[in-house]
Amino acid sequence: MIKEKILNLKKRKNAIILAHYYTLPEVQDIADFVGDSLALSKQAAATDADIILFAGVHFMAETAKILSPQKKVLIPDMDAGCSLADSCPAEQLEVFLKDYPNHKVLSYINCSAKVKTLSDIIVTSGNALKIVNALPQDEKIVFTPDRNLGAYINKETGREMVLWNGACHVHDQLTADEVYRLKEKYPNAKVLAHPECKATVLALADFIGSTAAMLHFAKNNTPSAFIVATETGILYEMQKQNPDKQFYVVNNPETCACNDCEYMKLNTLEKIYSTLQSETPEVVLDEALIKKALAPIRKMLEH
Ligand code: 13P
Ligand code: SF4
User: Fold this and answer.
1) What confidence score (pLDDT) does residue 256 get?
2) Could you give the residue ranges of the DSSP H alpha helices within the chain?
3) In angstroms, rounded to a whole number, what is the distance separating the alpha carbons of residues 160 and 216?
4) Of all protein residues, whose CA lies closest to atom 2 belonging to ligand 2?
5) Distances in Å between the alpha carbon of 179 and those of 167, 190, 192?
6) CA-CA distance, 296 to 107, in Å (whole number)?
7) 102 — alpha (psi -120 to 50), left (phi > 0) or beta?
8) Strand pairing class (141-144; 104-108)
9) Closest ligand relative to 40 C-alpha
10) Is pLDDT at 157 greater than 90 in this prediction?
């Protein structure tokens, strides 16, 4: 069976498999560690494995390489990109930033290594509010690349960060109408939402947080039903942790009626096996780029 073959190979090669909550259930099952972006970065920095196989998307594997440059970092499919990271090309950001001298550049971790080199501090959805709140109130800030997360932070902190106009195609398509429809159908359900969703969706949420924070909320709060506004992969762990609770995912019925991140779903067991076998595709980054991109990630991890 492919599962055993992966586990044996992994052991033989002293490899670790890190997986995001948005990957397929069978991938989460064979991973050594499943987490949100923040927890995965911490794991990548701390591991003593020789090989990190990253079942996630490209910017996550890149971040792992930046944090552990001496390790071999593998990604099962080089096409596992991220629409949010792609919405902020480094060359365009560089030009944009010329209009904002004396601003700190805060970037959501969903960005390329090159964008990280243009940033002062990296944040994730799990620590963005804490990091922004720790900055002096009069600090001028440019926030990239997610306009929805940026607008949410502005609202919560009373800041006026300048926002790059980027978004995630999975979260940005979810609508308040669909949340209303589900609320009518399940009036006792609490609404959980990822801050990559639009403000109109976030306005209806009982709880807003990263994937790990939403999981924590679902487990530790009494309602037995939840309306979930994020990528569908999270439901696997949610249901596993709460077998007696009901979860209803917010879809966009006008588009695909599903909110799978097609990039995350490129990580299949077959590809993981062949990647471990051949030790390709490997994420390779220039040493100077690693050094420059590491500084803002380190600042994040210090918080
Ligand atoms: P978190 O893992 O920080 O919740 O982010 C979700 C996401 O979209 C990852 O790409
Ligand atoms: Fe990127 Fe959105 Fe997929 Fe997350 S869900 S990896 S932000 S495209």
Assistant:
1) 62
2) 2-12, 25-30, 37-46, 58-67, 83-86, 90-97, 113-117, 128-134, 147-157, 169-172, 176-185, 199-202, 211-220, 234-241, 269-278, 287-302
3) 30
4) 168
5) 19, 11, 10
6) 9
7) left
8) parallel
9) 1
10) yes
Q: Cα(7)–Cα(17) distance, rounded to whole angstroms?
A: 10
Ligand nearest to the CA of 38: 1
Q: Whose CA is nearest to atom 5 of ligand 2?
A: 261
Cβ count near 121 (within 10 Å): 23
Asked whether the beta carbons of 270 and 2 are under 8 A apart, the reply is yes
Residue with CA nearest ligand 2 atom 8: 82
User: Is the distance from CB of 80 to CB of 262 less than 8 angstroms?
Assistant: no
Cα 12 to ligand 1 centre (Å): 31
* Residue-wise pLDDT tens digits, 235-288: 999 999 999 999 999 987 666 657 899 999 999 999 999 999 999 999 999 999
